Inverse folding.
């Protein structure tokens, strides 16, 4: 589904809800971008998996059975997420302040792509610094988006909300898994009230899914550099979309409460159904 094939245009039925027209448009926009970004990330992961070839996949499958490999990746992800927020929050302006300079987003995109390429060339030795740098960059983007949406980064609840972005699922378990905006709302609801230790563990587990796929791809020389660069750039775009949806919805919920989810449900009901006749 492309960004232009997302949610149905806002109808009179939706405008009868508590949200006003500008709020409905905001909600529709962030959910469309979230769905579009998720699709791009999944398709890119599929493409990278094909690029490394069957022999590489068989080799990595053997590595996947090595004792503790997945646990080490998750532990690395957990450490990176915990440290990243403390650093990323430094120097961020006041809540709701002026947006960042236009050049900062493409600069961050280029930086993580270069980091991924270097990490890919470096093999296992390049994975640790690449994960640390990329996670910090993603968290910085999340923190900036939170600030732009009126969040105070000195508030412990905002810290939780930033970590929650990593806990929201990045990759569907299967290509056909339903990952609609309603699943996004359900995932957010499940994270509320969890102790911070459990929240960080959940974030590391979900983020680790993406890291394991990158690790798989980056074990192949040359192709690993291409995979690392492409997936890092896609990761950053995807987490930006997640963060924008998460913090826009938090802002709208502060003003409209449960009507925000009700509006998303109405959008889903009015969403054009895919044409399966050509399948």
């Amino acid at each position: 589904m492309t960004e232009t094939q997302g949610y149905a245009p806002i109808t009179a039925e939706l405008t009868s809800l508590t949200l006003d027209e500008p709020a409905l448009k905001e909600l529709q926009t962030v959910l469309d971008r979230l769905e579009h970004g998720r699709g791009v990330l999944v398709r890119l992961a599929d493409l990278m998996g094909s690029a490394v070839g069957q022999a590489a996949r068989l080799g990595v499958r053997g590595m996947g059975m090595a004792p503790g490999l997945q646990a080490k990746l998750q532990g690395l992800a957990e450490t990176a997420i915990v440290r990243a927020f403390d650093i990323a929050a430094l120097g961020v302006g006041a809540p709701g302040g002026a947006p960042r300079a236009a050049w900062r987003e493409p600069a961050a995109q280029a930086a993580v792509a270069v980091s991924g390429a270097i990490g890919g060339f470096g093999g296992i030795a390049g994975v640790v610094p690449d994960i640390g740098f990329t996670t910090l960059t993603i968290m910085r983007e999340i923190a900036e988006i939170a600030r732009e949406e009126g969040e105070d980064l000195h508030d412990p609840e905002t810290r939780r909300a930033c970590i929650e972005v990593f806990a929201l699922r990045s990759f569907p378990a299967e290509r056909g898994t339903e990952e609609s905006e309603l699943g996004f709302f359900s995932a957010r609801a499940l994270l509320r009230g969890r102790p911070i230790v459990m929240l960080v563990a959940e974030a590391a587990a979900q983020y680790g899914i993406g890291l394991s796929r990158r690790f798989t791809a980056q074990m192949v020389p040359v192709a690993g550099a291409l995979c690392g660069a492409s997936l890092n750039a896609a990761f950053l775009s995807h987490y930006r979309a997640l963060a924008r949806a998460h913090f826009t919805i938090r802002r709208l919920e502060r003003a409209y409460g449960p009507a925000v989810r009700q509006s998303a449900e109405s959008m889903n009901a009015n969403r054009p159904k895919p044409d399966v006749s050509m399948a």
